[in-house]
């Protein structure tokens, strides 16, 4: 534990008023002391972002975008260092950590290419109506622990390019990569444009209710998202909420069982299942159900579970003790009522390890099927009728993502059209790109991230409606 970390407030890297320990989930050892901001430091960060706003928003989009591009280049140059740090705080295997760093670079670079332009609504005989957009002011970014850096980039990129300033707050269990990024931000951006504070869950409510914050970009659980929405109401703040999901994978009868098992396994177990759009329940046509189960259970049994920093490890630990306990409870219940084909119990060793687990024969109302497990435990269910499986997939308060798998792509697309979620992938999964909007429906979210829609979320539209005298 030698590295030190600082908050970023008004262009300066500063110590916290207090500190707390950050744990490596692979061995439960303390890896760093995280600076912890107090309320005065939160106020200083918001004040700095407010003071920086007039000059920053007066710059051209090209100037701001060039600096966002520079941040991406600086991150790219330190990708290996960031990937190692990410594995140590988050737990994901090093290759997946590297993918997240590269995804962060591409997201920032993607936004650096985007521009907001006026939209002409009428231009006839001197009658001009157009919509122009302005930045909102100070925006807060509140991020979770599963993809700490890329989920910040989804907010930081559009926020800065459109001329806003930011106060970012990472999750308490994964603050370190965000704080390292703060060093780059301190170097590249004018003072106050981006600020980073850390907490142990106390400061989020103060950000979402703060009168000088115009918008909150939040990614996290649905339960916390509701609190953010409620506390933002006091000042009619803009909110973008990217929340939980319970995504179904639907495997149609013309899908080869082995290929389906490989794809669904990957979609369910990458990042130890801690992906908002992970496959959280698989519905497999009865004609290939048994073969699918055999294949996916074999994949789960072949997984190499361990410290993500070690070569060859394919599944790291669950990120934190609270989540480990939550998944363990769901797992124990599923093991009682269903048939466990692989995995089945947390590993008896230091670290928050749950082996990839496949459970069959569960009731549709079993907690593992109804709730978001957010861990490496997958229920597999059988279906025979397409209308029935679509009803079951849609029978959820969530509506984030989902996948449909089948050789007849048109038929699979026809099924995908009937799934009530923000994104449905057909014959692929986890394809998330800077220029394609991403959003949840129902209790999975509000507003969009990424794409032009995600850029515009950081702006206010105004109409000018003019006629000649
Ligand atoms: P969480 O809701 O516990 O925490 C998220 C963030 O909110 C953290 O920074 C936390 O400190 C902060 N926070 C806690 N209480 C707050 C409050 N009252 N007001 C404001 N902020 C507060 O979520 P988590 O457990 O870190 O993340 C896992 C969840 O995130 C899962 O449900 C997952 O599906 C979801 N998620 C969604 C997406 C998406 O794009 N839809 C992406 C990743 C994760």
Topology of this protein?
Layout: E1 7-9, E2 12-14, E3 18-24, E4 29-36, H1 39-58, H2 61-77, H3 79-90, H4 94-112, E5 119-124, E6 127-135, E7 138-142, H5 150-161, E8 165-169, H6 176-188, E9 194-196, H7 204-209, E10 215-219, H8 222-232, E11 238-242, E12 248-251, H9 257-269, E13 281-285, H10 289-302, H11 321-337, E14 339-342, E15 357-360, H12 367-370, E16 377-383, H13 386-394, E17 402-405, H14 409-417, E18 425-426, E19 438-439, E20 445-446, E21 448-449, H15 451-456, E22 459-466
Parallel strand pairs: 7-8, 7-10, 8-9, 10-11, 12-13, 12-17, 13-16, 15-16, 17-18
Antiparallel strand pairs: 1-2, 3-4, 5-6, 6-22, 11-20, 14-15, 19-21
Helix pairs in contact: 2-4, 2-6, 3-4, 4-5, 9-10
Identify the CATH class of the largest domain.
Alpha Beta
The name of the CATH topology of the largest domain is: Aldehyde Dehydrogenase, Chain A, domain 1
Number of strands: 22
Main sheet attributes: strand count, strand direction, barrel closure: 7 strands, mixed
Strand percentage: 15-25%
pLDDT average, as an integer?
98
Could you list some keywords that capture this structure?
22 strands; Aldehyde Dehydrogenase, Chain A, domain 2; binds nicotinamide-adenine-dinucleotide; 469 residues; Aldehyde Dehydrogenase, Chain A, domain 1; seven-stranded mixed β-sheet; 2 domains; alpha/beta
What would you say this structure looks like, in words?
The model has no long low-confidence stretch (mean pLDDT 98). The chain starts with 6 loop residues before the first strand and ends with a strand. It has two domains: 7-243 and 443-466, 3-Layer(aba) Sandwich (Aldehyde Dehydrogenase, Chain A, domain 1); 248-433, Aldehyde Dehydrogenase, Chain A, domain 2, CATH 3.40.309. α2 packs antiparallel against α4 and α3 (79-90) packs across α4. It has helices spanning 39-58, 61-77, 79-90, 94-112, 150-161, 176-188, 204-209, 222-232, 257-269, 289-302, 321-337, 367-370, 386-394, 409-417, 451-456, and strands at residues 7-9, 12-14, 18-24, 29-36, 119-124, 127-135, 138-142, 165-169, 194-196, 215-219, 238-242, 248-251, 281-285, 339-342, 357-360, 377-383, 402-405, 425-426, 438-439, 445-446, 448-449, 459-466. The protein is an alpha/beta fold. The protein is globular. The strands form six sheets. Strands 14-15-16-13-12-17-18 form a seven-stranded mixed beta sheet, with helices on both faces. Strands 9-8-7-10-11-20 form a six-stranded mixed beta sheet, sandwiched between helices. It has a three-stranded antiparallel beta sheet with strand order 5-6-22, with no helix packed on it. The structure holds nicotinamide-adenine-dinucleotide (NAD). Nicotinamide-adenine-dinucleotide (NAD) binds at residues 142-146, 151, 169, 171-172, 201, 204-205, 208, 219-221, 224, 227-228, 242-245, 276, 372, 374, 400, 440, 445. Nicotinamide-adenine-dinucleotide (NAD) is lined by residues 142-146, 151, 169, 171-172, 201, 204-205, 208, 219-221, 224, 227-228, 242-245, 276, 372, 374, 400, 440, 445.
